[in-house]
Protein 1
Amino acid sequence: MRFTSVFLSCVVVTAWATPVTYHSSLNSLDEVLLFDAPAFQDPDNASNSLVSLQAFVYLKQFDLTTLTSALTAWTLGGIGGSIETAVERLKLFAAVGVPGVSLSVGVAECSEQATLSATSGLPDLGLSATNASLGHCDGGNAFTGTLFNADDVVTTTIFPSGTNGFGVISDIDDTVKVSHVLNTFQFIKTTLFDNPEPVPGMPDLYASLIQTLNDPPFIYITGSPYQLFPFLRDFLKASFPNSRGPIFSQNVTLADVSQVIDVLSNPNDLLDYKLSQVDRVHGIYPNKSFLTIGDSTQSDPEVYAEAYRKYGDFIRCIWIRRVDGANNSNERFTAAFNGVPQTKYRIYTDEEIPGLALIDVAGGSC
Ligand SMILES: *[C@@H]1O[C@H](CO)[C@@H](O)[C@H](O)[C@H]1NC(C)=O
Ligand SMILES: *[C@@H]1O[C@H](CO)[C@@H](O)[C@H](O)[C@H]1NC(C)=O
Ligand SMILES: *[C@@H]1O[C@H](CO)[C@@H](O)[C@H](O)[C@H]1NC(C)=O
Ligand SMILES: *[C@@H]1O[C@H](CO)[C@@H](O)[C@H](O)[C@H]1NC(C)=O
Ligand SMILES: *[C@@H]1O[C@H](CO)[C@@H](O)[C@H](O)[C@H]1NC(C)=O
């Protein structure tokens, strides 16, 4: 770590040195990332669908020199692994966002194109997040949204769900994906170099929830920055093919891409951010009831418990994976779950994962 920090401080280059262009429609210099998105019934018009759509527009050409140097320092530091893999996973940290661009996304099953608000300036440079109208949509569990106005075809998966029934909110790192967030060295290694692995038993558990909760939407709330979205999406596609869903991630814009390792290994306090994302889910599906699944490494117990105190049965159950090395003390859980009935939450060990599938969540057990 120390070696790396010293190395990094020698190669300071700021992204803002690159000129920023302002224009209102996409041009051939721009690239677009569309995030997978939930769709839901318009609360003001039952025959209309809305989609909570997010996009990142950035200059197609960007400089990877600084990022590559920073990552080379880590491989030299003994972590080992393919530098190409690491650069590919982290390259969006070096991308330069483009403000003021408006996009439209079309869905074959829906009567209207979704139009996003113009991409933002600083601090969320190049990002846009909008509730956009899709008009009337016909059936289906997943739609493909296609960007209009692009040279390349850019697509996104849109997951529609009805107003009632169950849903699942899940964390990613150390809940469904082996990440070792408590060990900086291991965490950086799994994030940058290793093939991502699911937590054993979780793909089967999530597949069983599709049956027992009658096709719930799965919404993943992660502390990871949006730049890791393609990596996390591909992981879910490979390991959780039938329980995929939108990934709500953090907005992080680096002034200095050489800080990427420090930013990844020293996450901010996730409590407020994750609560804001549970609020976002509540805004989208206020009349559903969610099984919330997380782990004891960061703030999931505190986040889901606070959401229960705020929203009651919108949070149907809270399941927390007990991760070795985390604060698994009674004091912690007693404080976190203050005001939450003991029948509403469960701290589970890895040995207990197969048994979770037998719990009748729909029938009121947790
Ligand atoms: C949720 O349920 C309430 C009470 O039944 C109803 O007034 C409201 O329209 C519902 N909201 C949605 C988004 O379906
Ligand atoms: C990310 O940035 C967009 C654009 O400014 C904003 O609308 C959205 O609320 C931000 N998301 C979070 C989680 O802060
Ligand atoms: C409700 O939405 C449908 C489908 O988008 C649209 O055709 C209709 O005009 C809308 N109704 C109102 C009152 O806005
Ligand atoms: C999107 O729609 C949901 C549900 O109506 C609402 O709670 C939320 O505030 C809206 N978000 C924005 C950015 O308009
Ligand atoms: C664990 O959490 C409790 C409650 O927040 C706190 O009092 C205790 O100091 C923590 N223990 C460790 C080892 O961090």
Protein 2
Amino acid sequence: MRSTTLLSLAAASLPLALAQDDSLTSSKRGLCYVDPEENTQDTDVWDASDSDLTWYYNYEASPTDGIDESKLQFVPMIWGLPDSTSSMAFYNTVTGLMEQGYNITYVLGFNEPDGCVSGGSCIAAEDAAAAWIREIEPLKDQGVLLGAPAVTGSPMGFTWLENFYNACNGNCTTHFIPVHWYGNFEGLASHMGQVNGTYPNMTMWVTEYACADCELEEAQQFYNMSADYFDRLDYVTHYSYFGAFRSDVSNVGKNAAMLTQKGELTDIGAWYLGQQATGNKPKGGAAQVAKFAGWAVVVASVAFWTVL
Ligand SMILES: *[C@@H]1O[C@H](CO)[C@@H](O)[C@H](O)[C@H]1NC(C)=O
Ligand SMILES: *[C@@H]1O[C@H](CO)[C@@H](O)[C@H](O)[C@H]1NC(C)=O
Ligand SMILES: *[C@@H]1O[C@H](CO)[C@@H](O)[C@H](O)[C@H]1NC(C)=O
Ligand SMILES: *[C@@H]1O[C@H](CO)[C@@H](O)[C@H](O)[C@H]1NC(C)=O
Ligand SMILES: *[C@@H]1O[C@H](CO)[C@@H](O)[C@H](O)[C@H]1NC(C)=O
């Protein structure tokens, strides 16, 4: 019942106009970094002087070699459950980075803990709460703002998060809420409306999103509308498009990729960096075996990419 109301509310507030040229740039934009494997030169695209991006995450606690920290602020993530129930590995890595002079002001919680197929970290809410209280919560006292676990965009995501907060019993502070979405723009807007309705006082980071397996025109239109939407919403403070990889290895369809099969910026890639369209058309590859099948399929872990 509740979600029906929220869906119609969100649908009523869809933007009427697409992005204008003057909205090509945005300080909210960051990089969701995916290892380019042998194409190491692709990493240089994102922190180039003509890139507009301001921050990045890489699904790990430690920064990526070759990304300029003075250009892109690193945001550590605890991807999955630590090996032991006494681990302080994440806490120690993050505080170690701060001691080395890294400007760590945010961390991200578990990646798709409600997802137990490719890409999800598949964690019981109780285990996540215990790990949170032990080694994430204390980072708050170091002045770090804490991002809630980034659940999938499916209904089970809401359930998982509710179970997590219940298991925390008031002992887990989350300063902002990351959101993932794969689908069309209307679905994205209504999902965000539902997140906002459920957690009305939390700012939002959209840390993975794309029109997965869409036609090129549709993927570009989705990109434009969502960038415009995020830029206009005060409660969205950060967003990172998925994704920063070549079209022939994309697991969300070739047209969502920011790089062509040759590593050149696509139109979406160029727009995302605050630049003019390139006209480069993304092509798929024979190796593109992973098929995206809607929100129930969880994408985007480092492990998944290794399998590819
Ligand atoms: C550290 O990052 C925060 C948040 O992005 C920013 O406001 C602040 O200016 C940065 N501090 C330094 C010393 O770069
Ligand atoms: C939460 O904190 C309270 C007060 O410090 C404590 O009594 C309780 O055991 C904690 N709960 C969990 C699940 O850690
Ligand atoms: C988000 O929720 C807040 C608090 O309920 C509300 O004031 C605001 O209008 C909502 N934002 C949108 C865009 O729906
Ligand atoms: C949200 O913030 C408002 C205004 O500060 C407050 O009245 C309300 O109780 C808060 N709601 C939740 C769910 O924390
Ligand atoms: C997307 O936005 C760019 C830049 O504002 C514009 O040139 C392009 O025509 C738009 N494309 C679609 C499909 O809306």
